[in-house]
C-alpha cells in the first residue's frame, strides 16, 4: 500500500509544538533503556506542571465493544471469558494560546467506519446479529458530542489518536477522489483540523507488516490529503498542560496524551486497558496479581500486534512514572485508558477492580 505522499513531502509538512528535550531518544539494550526512561520520566514529571493547565477537559463516551481477553490482559488473565468489553472515549481539550482558543480532539473515532477494520469486520461476520446487539453499545458520535458541547467543527484545531489502528479519517479530513463505499467524495467535517501523528507510524503504514495488517485500514488513506497531517518526531508540548509523549511499542509510532489538571498529571493511551494494569498488585481480576509476581513484571500490556513488546513495556513504565495517584483511590494512577475495560455480564471474570470512566478538568 502506497500513500499519496513521499518521504520528502512528509518531511516538508509543518511541525507543531515545542520539543521535549527531557524525553530524548535513548539507546542501548531494552533493560538499559528502561532505566534511562524511568529517569527521563521523573525529570519531565517535575518540569511539566510549569507549562500550566488547559482551560478544560471533557470526556465523551463513543462505543463499547468486545475485545479478546488474551490481547487486552496480555498473558495475565485467568478469566474464562474469551472476550472482555472496552469502552472507547473521546477527550475534548481546550486551551488558550496567545489569546487564541485551541481545541484538540483525542481519540475522535469514527466508529461507524472503524468497524470495517479487518479483525473487527471478520469478527462481526462470524457473530449473529442478536449477539452483536448485546455486546456492542453505541453511546454517541463525535459530531453529536461536539454539538452538545457547543463546539463547531470548524473550531477544531487538532485531531489526535494514540495510534491509527482501526481509524478511518476520510469523513473527518476529506478525500481527494470519489469514494465508492461512501457514495461520493466526502468534504472534511473538520476543515481546519490537522491530524497529529508520529512520523514513524506514517512510515510503517506505507508498507504494513503481517502482524499489523489485521488492525489497519490502509485503503482508507489512499486518497486523503497529506496536508491534513502534522507529523511529529518524539515528544512535544502542544499548549499549557498539554503534551504528546512518544510511547512506541503497541505500534511503532505510538504516542500518549499527557495533561496537567487540577488533580495533577494524567496520561492517556491504549497501551493498557485498565488503570490497575499499571499497579496489578492491587487488581482483583483473576490472575493479574499472581502472574505479575510470578513473572516479576510490574505492568500488564494491551498487546494485539506485539510489534516491539519490550518497547511497549518500557513505554508503559514511562506512563506510570508520569501519572499522579488517583484522588479517588490512591492505589491506582491517573492513567485514563483511551479504551477502558468495562464490566459486562457476558464476560465473567473481566470486571475492573477500579475504573475512571471520565476525565474532567476546568
TrEMBL record:
Q: Which InterPro entries match?
A: MBL_superfamily_lactonases (IPR051013), RibonucZ/Hydroxyglut_hydro (IPR036866)
Q: Iron-sulfur among the record's keywords?
A: no
Alphabetically ordered keywords of this record: Hydrolase, Metal-binding, Zinc
The answer to keyword Lyase applying to this record is no
Needed cofactors, names only, are:
Zn(2+)
Spell out the family assignment given in the record's similarity comment.
Answer: Belongs to the metallo-beta-lactamase superfamily.
Task: Give the protein's recorded name.
Answer: Metallo-beta-lactamase superfamily protein
User: Species name for this entry?
Assistant: Lentzea rhizosphaerae
Amino acid at each position: 500500500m502506497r500513500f499519496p505522499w513521499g518521504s520528502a513531502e512528509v518531511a516538508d509538512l509543518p511541525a507543531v509544538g515545542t520539543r521535549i528535550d527531557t524525553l530524548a531518544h535513548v539507546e542501548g539494550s531494552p533493560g538499559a533503556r528502561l532505566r534511562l526512561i524511568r529517569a527521563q520520566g521523573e525529570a519531565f514529571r517535575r518540569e511539566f506542571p510549569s507549562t500550566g493547565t488547559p482551560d478544560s477537559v471533557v470526556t465523551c463516551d463513543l462505543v463499547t465493544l468486545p475485545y479478546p481477553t488474551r490481547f487486552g490482559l496480555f498473558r495475565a488473565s485467568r478469566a474464562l471469558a474469551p472476550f472482555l468489553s472496552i469502552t472507547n472515549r473521546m477527550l475534548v481539550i481546550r486551551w488558550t494560546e496567545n489569546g487564541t482558543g485551541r481545541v484538540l480532539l483525542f481519540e475522535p473515532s469514527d466508529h461507524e467506519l472503524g468497524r470495517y477494520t479487518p479483525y473487527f469486520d471478520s469478527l462481526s461476520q462470524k457473530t449473529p446479529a442478536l449477539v452483536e446487539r448485546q455486546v456492542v453499545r453505541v453511546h454517541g458520535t463525535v459530531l453529536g458530542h461536539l454539538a452538545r458541547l457547543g463546539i463547531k467543527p470548524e473550531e477544531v484545531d487538532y485531531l489526535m489518536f494514540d495510534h491509527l489502528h482501526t481509524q478511518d479519517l476520510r469523513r473527518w479530513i476529506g478525500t481527494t477522489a470519489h469514494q465508492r463505499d461512501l457514495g461520493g467524495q466526502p468534504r472534511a467535517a473538520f476543515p481546519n483540523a490537522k491530524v497529529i501523528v508520529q512520523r514513524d507510524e506514517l512510515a510503517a503504514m506505507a508498507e504494513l507488516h503481517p502482524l499489523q495488517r489485521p488492525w489497519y485500514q490502509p485503503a482508507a488513506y489512499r486518497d486523503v490529503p497529506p496536508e491534513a497531517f502534522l507529523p511529529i518526531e518524539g515528544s512535544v508540548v502542544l499548549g499549557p498542560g498539554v503534551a504528546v509523549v512518544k510511547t512506541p511499542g503497541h505500534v511503532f509510532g505510538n504516542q500518549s496524551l499527557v495533561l496537567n489538571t487540577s488533580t495533577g498529571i494524567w496520561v492517556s493511551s491504549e497501551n493498557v486497558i485498565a488503570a490497575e494494569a499499571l499497579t496489578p498488585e492491587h487488581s482483583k481480576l483473576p490472575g493479574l496479581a499472581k502472574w505479575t509476581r510470578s513473572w516479576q513484571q510490574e505492568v500488564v500490556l494491551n498487546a494485539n500486534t506485539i510489534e516491539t513488546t519490550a518497547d511497549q513495556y518500557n513505554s508503559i513504565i514511562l506512563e506510570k512514572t508520569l501519572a499522579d495517584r488517583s484522588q479517588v483511590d490512591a492505589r491506582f494512577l491517573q492513567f485514563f485508558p483511551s479504551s477502558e475495560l468495562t464490566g459486562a455480564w457476558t464476560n465473567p471474570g473481566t470486571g475492573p477492580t477500579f475504573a475512571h470512566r471520565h476525565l474532567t478538568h476546568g
